[in-house]
């Protein structure tokens, strides 16, 4: 009896491990595609380490914008941002332009990359989520 219980527990553990790895592979490929999008469209302002440029371009490391509502975050890429904001005690008021010309997949990938880089660790953003926010405009 004990052997059966042990085998079931081991089997369940194995299934869970395989499952979490499949999710990981999807997120991982999104992250590596997103890195290329980031380097092309975001890096000049937010920098290679996500640290931004003091008083010009805000850092995107564990900010409430990056960690918080996905809808708001997606909206920033789609519509840009043009209002004074405070990040880590510093004021930023340069505008960020809209990047609505990027595809749903590119925006999902770049945000998944940002949310899993520079010390960030937040769930992936999916193209379907970008699509919903884009449709609301
Ligand atoms: C021309 C420079 C520039 C580019 C390119 C740019 N940003 Fe920004 N970004 C800014 C500025 C400036 C702000 C602050 C805007 C404000 O205060 O209204 C900002 C704000 C943000 C914020 C919210 C504030 C924060 O620090 O968390 C996020 C997230 C963000 N940008 C992500 C991106 C991503 C992702 C890309 C690429 C798709 C990108 N930005 C491209 C300049 C830029």
Give the low-confidence spans.
Answer: none
Amino- and carboxy-terminal Cα gap: 60 Å
State mean pLDDT (0 to 100 scale): 95
Largest sheet: 2 strands, antiparallel
Class computed from helices, strands and strand pairing: mainly alpha
How many domains make up the coordinates? 1
How many helices? The count is 6
What do these coordinates show?
With 137 residues, the chain is mainly alpha-helical. The protein has a single domain (32-136), classed as Orthogonal Bundle (Cytochrome Bc1 Complex, Chain D, domain 2), CATH 1.10.760.10. It contains 6 helices and 2 strands. A two-stranded antiparallel ribbon has the order 1-2. Strand 1 and strand 2 form a beta hairpin. It is elongated. The mean pLDDT is 95. Bound molecules: heme C. Heme C (HEC) is lined by residues 41-42, 44-46, 57-60, 63, 65-66, 73, 76-77, 81-85, 87, 92-96, 99, 110, 114.
Keywords summarizing the entry:
137 residues, mainly alpha, Cytochrome Bc1 Complex, Chain D, domain 2, two-stranded antiparallel sheet, 6 helices, 2 strands, elongated, binds heme C
Write a compact overview of the structure shown:
The protein has 6 helices and 2 strands; from the N terminus they run ααααββαα. It is mainly alpha-helical and 137 residues long.
Topology:
Blueprint: H1 2-41, H2 43-46, H3 64-67, H4 70-79, E1 85-87, E2 90-92, H5 104-114, H6 127-136
Antiparallel strand pairs: 1-2
